[in-house]
C-alpha cells in the first residue's frame, strides 16, 4: 500500500492498542527485540530474563531465564543471530543465552556492577559498562575479556557506529565522546547538551543518531559532520530512553513524563503519544514494524506496594478482528531519511 508522511498520524490513531505480559515479579528495567523481530526479551529486578513471541498479535512467554543473582539492568540481542541474547547485571557478570536451547551458554565475570551493554555490529564483541565508569570489551567467541577502558568522567550509554569503526559514549558533562575502534584513540569530544547526556541511539541507516539528556531535550545529529539537525522539547523530565523505528521515519522518547512522545524524524512533528502510568525505563521499536516495546515502573493494580512486572507492546490495531490482524501490513517506508 502506498504511504505518505501525512498518513502516519492516522496510522497511529488506528494502531494504538497495547498488549501486556506479566511474568516478572519485579520492575522491568530493559526490553529488546531480536534482529528478526520474532522475539522480545525483558530483564527485571527479580533477577530473571523473559523472552516472548507475538502470537496472533498477543504477547506469549517463550522462556524464563534464571542465573543472575541481582538485578538484570540491561540486555541486547546479537545484531545478526536472532537466538543469541546477552544480559548484564548488578551481580558483576554478563551472561550469554541461546534462545533455541533455552540455556545459558556462558557466564563472564566483570569488575563492577554493570549498567550498560552494547553488541558490536559484527557480533564478535560485547561492551559492558559499570557504575565505576569502566567499560569491558568481551570477545564473544572465547567469552574472555579483550580489553578494559577506565574513564575519569561519568560514562552513560555507548554504541558503535554502523561499520564498527567508531565508538560513541555519552557523558555526565553533557558531551558525546568519539573513539576509533578497536584502538580506542580519542578522536573528538562534542558538546551536546547543557547537562548530563544520558542515552544514545543510531538510526537504521547509520547516518544519524539521537541523544537524550537531563536537560529534557532529545537532539538529532548527522554523524558525518556532527551537526545537530534539530531538538525535541516536549518532555519535561530527563530523557532516559530513545528509539528509532525500523525505517528511521519515527523516533520515540520517554522519561518520567506521563506519556511517550512519538515524533517524525523529518520534521519533529508529534505523531502520537503513548500514555504512561509511571516512569519509563526503556523503549524499543520492533526491527520491522511499528510496534513499540515498553519497560516501566508500574505498580500492581491490586496492591500498590508491589511492582507489576509488566512488559508492554504498543502499536497493535484496535479496529480489525484477530483473524485480519495477522495479515495486515504497516505502511511501507515513507522516504529515504534526508534532513
TrEMBL record:
Keywords of this entry: Repeat, WD repeat
GO cellular component terms given for this protein: THO complex part of transcription export complex
Keyword Kinase recorded: no
GO biological process entries: mRNA export from nucleus
UniProt xrefs under SUPFAM superfamilies: WD40 repeat-like (SSF50978)
Annotated SMART domains: WD40
Domain of life where this protein originates: Eukaryota
WD repeat coordinates: 21-62, 65-107, 190-231
Record's keyword annotation contains Repeat: yes
Pfam families, per the entry: Beta-prop_THOC3
InterPro entries: Tex1/THOC3, WD40/YVTN_repeat-like_dom_sf, WD40_repeat_dom_sf, WD40_rpt
UniProt family annotation: Belongs to the THOC3 family.
Name of this protein: THOC3
Amino acid at each position: 500500500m502506498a504511504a505518505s508522511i501525512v498518513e502516519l498520524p492516522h496510522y497511529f490513531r488506528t494502531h494504538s492498542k497495547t498488549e501486556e505480559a506479566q511474568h516478572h515479579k519485579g520492575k522491568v528495567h530493559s526490553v529488546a527485540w531480536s534482529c528478526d523481530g520474532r522475539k522480545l526479551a525483558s530483564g527485571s529486578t527479580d533477577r530473571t530474563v523473559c523472552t516472548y513471541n507475538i502470537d496472533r498479535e498477543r504477547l506469549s512467554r517463550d522462556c524464563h531465564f534464571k542465573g543472575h543473582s541481582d538485578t538484570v539492568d540491561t540486555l541486547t540481542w546479537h545484531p545478526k543471530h536472532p537466538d543469541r541474547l546477552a544480559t548484564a547485571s548488578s551481580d558483576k557478570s554478563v551472561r550469554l543465552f541461546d534462545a533455541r536451547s533455552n540455556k545459558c551458554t556462558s557466564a563472564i565475570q566483570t569488575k563492577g556492577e554493570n549498567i550498560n551493554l552494547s553488541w558490536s555490529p559484527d557480533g564478535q564483541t560485547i561492551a559492558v559498562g559499570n557504575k565505576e565508569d569502566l567499560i569491558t570489551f568481551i570477545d564473544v567467541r572465547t567469552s574472555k575479556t579483550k580489553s578494559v577502558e577506565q574513564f575519569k568522567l561519568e560514562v552513560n550509554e555507548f554504541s558503535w557506529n554502523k561499520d564498527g569503526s567508531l565508538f560513541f559514549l555519552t557523558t555526565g558533562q553533557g558531551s558525546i565522546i568519539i573513539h576509533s575502534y578497536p584502538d580506542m584513540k580519542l578522536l573528538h569530544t562534542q558538546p551536546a547538551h547543557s547537562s548530563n547526556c544520558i542515552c544514545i541511539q543510531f538510526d537504521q541507516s547509520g547516518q544519524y543518531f539521537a541523544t537524550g539528556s537531563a536537560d529534557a531535550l532529545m537532539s538529532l545529529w548527522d554523524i558525518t559532520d556532527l551537526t545537530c539537525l534539530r531538538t525535541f522539547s516536549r518532555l519535561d523530565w530527563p530523557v532516559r530512553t530513545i528509539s528509532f523505528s525500523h525505517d528511521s521515519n519515527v523516533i520515540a522518547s520517554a522519561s518520567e513524563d506521563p506519556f511517550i512522545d512519538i515524533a517524525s524524524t523529518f520534521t519533529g512533528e508529534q505523531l502520537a503519544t503513548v500514555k504512561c502510568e509511571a516512569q519509563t525505563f526503556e523503549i524499543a521499536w520492533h526491527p520491522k514494524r511499528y510496534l513499540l516495546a515498553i519497560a516501566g515502573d508500574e505498580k500492581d493494580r491490586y496492591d500498590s506496594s508491589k511492582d507489576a512486572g509488566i512488559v508492554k507492546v504498543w502499536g497493535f490495531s484496535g479496529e480489525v478482528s484477530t483473524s485480519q490482524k495477522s495479515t495486515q501490513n504497516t505502511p511501507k517506508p515513507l522516504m529515504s531519511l534526508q534532513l
